[in-house]
Amino acid sequence: MKAGRKKLTLSKMYEKMMNILLWQELQIPVSYLIWKKSIWALFAGFLFVFLSVPVYRIMLRKTELLDKPTEQHKTHHGVVPTAGGVLIFLSLVLTYILFFPAEISPWALRKFKSFFLATFLLFLLGAKDDMLKESANQRFIGQAIAGFFIFFNPDLRIQSFYGVLGVEELPTWFSILFSFFVWIVFVNAHNLADGIDGLLATVVGISTAFFGFVHLGNQDQIFALVSWGTSGACWAFLYYNISKKQRIFLGNMGSLLLGGVVAFLTLEYLSHDDFYKTLPSWHNVLAKVNKPVFAMSLSVYPLLDTLRVFVLRTASGKSPFVGDKNHLHHHLLSLGLSHARATTCAGIFSICAVFTVILLSRFFQANGQFIGFLLYVACGLGLLFYCKTLLASKQA
Structure pTM? Predict the structure, then answer.
C-alpha cells in the first residue's frame, strides 16, 4: 500500500510538473501561451542539432565536404568536416513543422514566405559555394536575388530612422535601396564573422535570443519561433564547433543561412513601429530603446568587424572581398587567446553592447543613444589594441 501511494504521489507530481511546463496551470493571459511553443522550439532546435552532429560527421567523412587549411586566412589545423549548415537548416524546418501556428493572418503568412524563400536561396547559394567555390560577384548576385523577396515587399522595408541623425520617415525609393543595402551588409557581415571556432554560432545565438524576447513581447508567434529555434540550434552547434574531437564547421551554407536569418529579423524589426504597443509591463524596458541603435547592438561584432576590414582593405588598394588575417578575431588570437576564449570575448562584447543601449535609453533619446553606442564600440576597439600594444612592448 505504501508503495502504491508513493507511486500515485510521484505520478501526480509528474503531471503537475508537466502542466506547469505547458503553462496549463499558470494564471496568465492566453497571449502568453505563445511562450510555450517558443520554449519548445528552442529545445527542439537544440536537441535536433546536438543529437544529429555525431552521425552527420561520419557521413561527411565519406564526401568531399571537408575544410582543409590551404588558404592564408585559415586558422585551424587538419581536415575538418564542414557543411554543418545543413543541420541548422533542417532544425529550422523541423521547428516550422512542429510548432507553426494553425491560424495565421495573410499578412503574417506573406512575411514568412518571404523569409523562407530568401533564406532558402542563401542556403543553396552557400551549398554551391562550398562545392564549387564561387566568385565574390556571383555571391553578390545570389544575395541580391534572395533579397528580391524582401525589399520589394512593402511590409519588410525600413521606412524610418526613428530620429537617428534627425531623420524620421524615408522616401519610398530610398527605403527600398537602404533596405537592400542593410540586407547585403548583414548577410556578408555574418558570413565574414565565421572565422574562428564558435564565433558565428555565439553571436547569432545571442542576437536571435534577444530577437526572440522582442517578438514574444509583441505576441509575434511566427518570428519568435524562428528566433528561438535558430538560437537553440546555434548553441547546440557551438558545442561541436569548439570541440577538439568532434569538431564541425558551418560552411558557407551555414554562415549565409544564419546571416540571412539575422538580416531578415533585423529588417522585420525595423519595418514597422508597432512593436511596443502591446507589450506587458515587464517588457516595457524596451519601449524607449531606439530601434536602429538596438538593431546595430544586436549584431555589433559582425558589423564592426566587416566595416573595419573593408575600410582597411580599400585604403590599402586591395579588394574588400579578399580574405586576410586582419579581422578582429585574428587580433584576439594574437593576444595568445584560444579560439574558445576569443569567442567568449566577442560574446561578452556583444551582450554588453545590447545592455549598454538599453541603459542609455533610460536617459537619452535617439541621437544620445546612437552617440553612446558609438563610444562603447570605440572603447572596445581601443581596449583590444591597447592590450595588443602592451603585449608587444612586453615581448620586445
Answer: 0.86
Q: Helices 339-360 and 366-395, interaxial angle, to 10°?
A: 150
pLDDT digits (tens, 9 = 90+) for 154-183: 678 888 898 898 888 899 889 889 999 999
Give the residue from 8, 39, 43 showing the smallest Cα distance to 21: 39
Neighbours of 38 (CB within 10 A): 23
Q: Judging by DSSP bridges, how do beta strands 80-81 and 66-67 pair with one another?
A: antiparallel
State how far the Cα of 80 lies from the Cα of 251, in Å rounded to an integer: 10
In 3D space, the residue among 127, 129, 80 whose CA is nearest the CA of residue 339 turns out to be 80
Output phi, psi for 193, to 5 deg: -75, -10
First to last CA, the chain: 79
φ and ψ of 81, to 5 deg: -60, 135
Instruction: Give phi and psi for 67, each to the nearest 5.
Output: -100, 120
Residues 323, 306: Cα–Cα separation, whole Å: 11
Residue 374 has which C-alpha cell?
558609438
Q: Domain limits of the chain?
A: 33-395
Above 60 in pLDDT, residue 280?
A: no
Place of cell 579588394: 319
- C-alpha cell belonging to residue 209: 535570443
Where do we find the cell 573595419? 308
Orientation angle between helical segments 34-60 and 221-241, nearest 10 degrees: 30
Amino acid present at 236: A
Judged against a pLDDT cut of 50, whether residue 26 lies above it is answered with no
Query: Is the pLDDT confidence value at 51 over 60?
Result: yes
pLDDT bucket at 307, cuts 50 / 70 / 90: very high
C-alpha grid cell, residue 296: 546595430
Residue 169 backbone phi and psi in degrees, to 5: -70, 140
Between CA 263 and CA 37 the distance in angstroms is 23
Cβ contact 273:82 at 8 Å: no
Collapse the DSSP code of 160 into the 3-class scheme (helix H, G, I; strand E, B; otherwise coil) and give the result.
strand
Could you read off the pLDDT of 95-110 as tens digits, one per residue? 988 888 877 888 888 8
Q: Which three cell numbers stand for residue 85?
A: 549548415
What distance in Å separates the CA atoms of residue 112 and residue 348, rounded to the nearest whole number?
A: 31
> Which position has the higher pLDDT, 189 or 395?
189
